[in-house]
Amino acid sequence: MQDMPKECRAMMETMPQACMDAMQQMMQGGMMHGGMAAPQGGESAPADADVADFTKAYVDAMEEMHGPMMEGVMAEDPDVAFIRGMIPHHQGAVDMAKIVQRYGDDPQTREWASQIIEAQEREIAEMQAWLDRNAGQQPAGLVETGGTVYSANEGDNSISAIELGTGSVETVQIGVSPHNVDRTPDGRLLLAVGSAASDHAHGSDDQGHADAGNGLLVVLDPQQLSQPVGTVEVGAHPAHVVADRSGRAYVSLSGGNEIAVVDLAAASVIEHITTGAYPHGLRLNPDESELYVANVEDGSVSVIDTQELTEVARIPVGAAPVQVGFTPSGDQVYVSLRDENRVAVIDTASREVTNRIDVGPNPIQMFATPDGAYVYVANQGTEAEPNDTVSVIEIESGNVIETITTGSGAHGVSASADGAFVFVTNIADDSVSIIDVASQEVLKTVPVGDRPNGIVYAGSNQ
């Protein structure tokens, strides 16, 4: 140990003896293939087939942690060495906690795991920011796709901006409790809607977003999020917002059973359109001629003519529709049925439901990939029992082909413009999961503000 840098010696001297013994054993005995340390006393090593999957996962997590830790503590500055050693240490703890969430059954260990993930991921972000300031180390990019992902954090009145190219996260207060966020098609403005926060499920008189009263549409400059461009009073219980290419924004008002149409240039409401009961999620079709709106309390979807600004059809779909999502062709609309644990599929030509697909518990938002291959459905679960999965529907077959584990309380969904990545807000653990579409696996989980709901991707330089 005398040959080690003094910073490493200091760290080793404070290490518990049991950890020292284990580390020395691994260094002396080496690691056998598959990541398992060689057994003592001449015992034969178990074959890989005899090792449980969770054990292999734990060992892999430990191996991925140890190398970067040892490399990190070799820094010449003691503070930098500590931080560079602790970041992989914390990431190892996060990885192990996720393993017990996947394989474990005991509620207490799963709860501890959730607490560890939340605390360690937040500290990783803080330590990485310290390195940026004090060691000139830029964080690694999250994914190859550039651009920014924005989450609406209803629990702490904030918006988080995740820069995919650098991995940096900026969270700013915006003066309302935003439930949803969208960007204008030209990328010049970011729009957020909200009022008083609520921790309950969507779509009933005692489980809505806010107390009665006027909610706000907040208009933001993506380059200066902390300085809102303006606000527009829109009506009671604003839920979602979408913007079109003509400079209009459409805001669903759950408390008024209507859509507010906003002229963004004039910063004023120019029309109200009646819908079904408790309108929530809404999306424009690809040519922006129609707006589909999910009406939670009467089990329907309203079809709005965007030229006439009037409802032209109301389609029965099932129990508690929360959000809608178009395929890129515009031929189909997917509708999450929260209280049925299913997704309804509407044929837009006939305006009839042609299929219902079983997904996970309490689906909320969904989003189709730009290539028209998949629809990703976030299964939030309930407040008492949050779910942590995303169902992947193959559009061609109409079947769920994968269920991906994300963070707790999967809620909002968006996708990158190239379709390579999908982004999911996790309302119960204050994070955003980044899913690689090619592998159908979560690549990264990024801490954001409190109770993230809506989410939107904006391309580079937008």
From TrEMBL:
Pfam families according to UniProt: DUF305, YNCE
UniProtKB keywords: Signal
YNCE-like beta-propeller domain location: 307-455
Keyword Signal: yes
Keyword field contains Signal: yes
Record-linked InterPro entries: DUF305_CopM-like, Ferritin-like, Host-pathogen_enzymatic-act, N2O_reductase_N, WD40/YVTN_repeat-like_dom_sf, YNCE-like_beta-prop, YVTN_b-propeller_repeat
Lineage top rank: taxon: Bacteria
Residues in DUF305 domain copies: 79-140
NCBIfam families attached to this UniProt entry: beta_rpt_yvtn
Protein name as annotated: Arylesterase family protein
Native source species: Brucella lupini
